[in-house]
Design a protein that fits this description.
The chain is α+β, with helices and mostly antiparallel strands. The chain has two domains: about 1-40; about 40-80. It contains three helices and three strands. The chain has a three-stranded mixed β-sheet with strand order 1-2-3. β2 and β3 (about 35-40) form a beta hairpin. The protein starts with a strand and ends with a helix.
Length: about 80
């Protein structure tokens, strides 16, 4: 659901209830452009957890790639 800032101000508690109890995403537009999304706090926590897990996974991938590179570099020196 998308609403303007003026509409969000006018019916804030209604949109809070829709986000919290109805698990709806409320997109708030300013001058016709989306600027904010209102979501239930539990959904927000899930998003943050997923973001953290994704960051940790990427860090593991980078670490693994670095170790692979180091091993290949060592092998190249050993061949000389």
């Amino acid at each position: 659901m998308t609403v303007s800032v003026a509409e969000a101000k006018k019916s804030l508690s209604e949109y809070i209830n829709k986000a919290h109890y109805g698990h709806e995403e409320i997109i708030i537009n300013k001058h016709g452009k989306p600027v904010v999304v209102m979501i239930d706090v539990e959904e927000y926590k899930k998003l943050k957890l997923h973001q953290q897990e994704d960051s940790e996974f990427k860090a593991l991938q980078i670490d693994s790639m670095a170790k692979t590179w180091d091993n290949k570099e060592d092998e190249a020196w050993n061949e000389l």
